[in-house]
């Protein structure tokens, strides 16, 4: 049913515009489904349903919301293999990644929010002027509009939907055009789990049409966006028209800083895993390795050796390490970065090609290691979103940190050292929303995820996400019972 439908007010329905597009498996170009291009009227219908549903859902007790999310985790667990297969078919992710990372991570996030829903609280505070008791209420924002990218379609949908509904909001989610299917399955499972109709709605379609209709809708009080920095800028502009709260999770260009006392083998393994995860289409992927001069040559050699062992193959084959990129357009974009880098004098140590043979039918690109690129070159500064790692040397610790901070992005970073002082200094001085020490990538539901600088603001996951999805109200109770309050004299009459 996810094929060719929107999910609005607890049911699948066809889109009003009648227009649709194909969802393509990038491993072989086969069409896996048809997706509806929602019209502004479809978006309005979903927002109206959400607004109606939010009144009841916002009034449900935290315990009731928690139980519904616990039921959802169980429904999803029963369909885990189906989720993994569908996610793999629409993205080209290796099945071992969807089975062992995307799907269990998503279900864990639902379980986390089932617990977190019961821990929301305001504060009963004090009598700050002696005459009033102040109480702080934490309330839902109302209807949330969320827009998600294609790189982790299920996880991004979960990161948006769960904190929103755990806090008593209703949501209209627009997944990316390329990958709408698992978000629709999620909406369907919310209904199966007993979450009331209209609380979770999914409208598929184009960013410029369905996305902007959501951003401009006056009933939508907050927009939560994950995607590229240029589109994030556009989101802020359109949302400004109705003064919406905005939460932006944008691009990244994560540095990977290797100090000269690091465990070289661990850093090499970490760099390959951290740069190739999800074919490099990960906003926190390691993209720029800065290696202190004494380890530089051995690190480059080590990474090249391990990259050459990575098995490209069909995503459905459990032994495949690296699948295709999400689309042929994305593959060509990545190849363009590497070709231009060759043109300005960078050297490709391994990879840098579109593979032939059986893989030529898919959007594959080889794991690629680039050296001798200047810090201000495009391949070091811009988000590539492909299986490409650039390595640069540095001399002093200060220089390594300065280079790590020298892009507009600030989403994630890692530092590799066995020296506790160096690790503390690096974690303090690197400007990013997450700094790993001696690892790169692992995330947990309990901890916040979100950027500094042009990587956006606001947090997904963890208790911190409720700062985005709730609003705080001050309630002040007069405790004097006086008819004429003391402060009235400043307006009229005397004491
Ligand atoms: P994108 O910005 O092209 O699209 C993201 C979403 O925005 C899609 O659903 C798209 O339809 C929609 N969109 C496009 N134009 C729009 C408009 N004018 N108005 C409203 N919506 C619009 O990004 P993408 O290519 O799908 O995903 C890759 C990007 O996402 C990368 O930059 C990556 O770093 C980023 N990302 C960030 C995080 C994070 O947590 N910071 C996580 C995942 C992905």
Automatic annotation (TrEMBL):
Q: Which InterPro entries has this protein been placed in?
A: Ald_DH/histidinol_DH, Ald_DH_C, Ald_DH_CS_CYS, Ald_DH_CS_GLU, Ald_DH_N, Aldehyde_DH_dom
Q: Which UniProt keywords apply?
A: Oxidoreductase
Q: Where is the Aldehyde dehydrogenase domain?
A: 19-475
SUPFAM superfamilies, per database record: ALDH-like
Per its UniProt record, what Gene3D superfamilies does this chain match?
Aldehyde Dehydrogenase, Chain A, domain 1, Aldehyde Dehydrogenase, Chain A, domain 2
Active site (catalytic residues):
249
Q: Please give the superkingdom of this protein's source.
A: Bacteria
The family assignment reads: Belongs to the aldehyde dehydrogenase family.
Protein's recorded name: Gamma-aminobutyraldehyde dehydrogenase
Q: Which organism is it from?
A: Longivirga aurantiaca
Q: What is the lineage of its organism?
A: Bacteria, Bacillati, Actinomycetota, Actinomycetes, Sporichthyales
